[in-house]
Write a structure and sequence with these properties.
This protein is of the alpha/beta class. The chain has two helices and three strands, in the order βαβαβ. Helix 2 links the parallel strand 2 and strand 3.
Length: about 70
């Protein structure tokens, strides 16, 4: 499916597992560059980052200093 995400940048939070990880993978598959934030940057997110389309960022948005 072509959703028009080529050359676009997306920000995904909670990207290390579940829906956040699935959204990250779908956006990458559509050609988007993804800034993927998660408290714990797990191995699956790190492997996506090694491919170059994802920038994995360790961040805790539940803390006052997180955002």
């Amino acid at each position: 499916m072509e959703l028009g995400f080529k050359s676009k940048v997306a920000v995904v939070t909670g990207a290390s597992k579940g829906i956040g990880l699935a959204v990250t993978k779908a956006l990458v598959a559509e050609g988007a560059r993804v800034i993927a934030g998660a408290r714990d940057v797990g191995s699956e997110l790190r492997s996506l980052a090694e491919g170059g389309a994802v920038d994995a960022v360790s961040i805790d948005l539940a803390t006052p200093g997180g955002p």
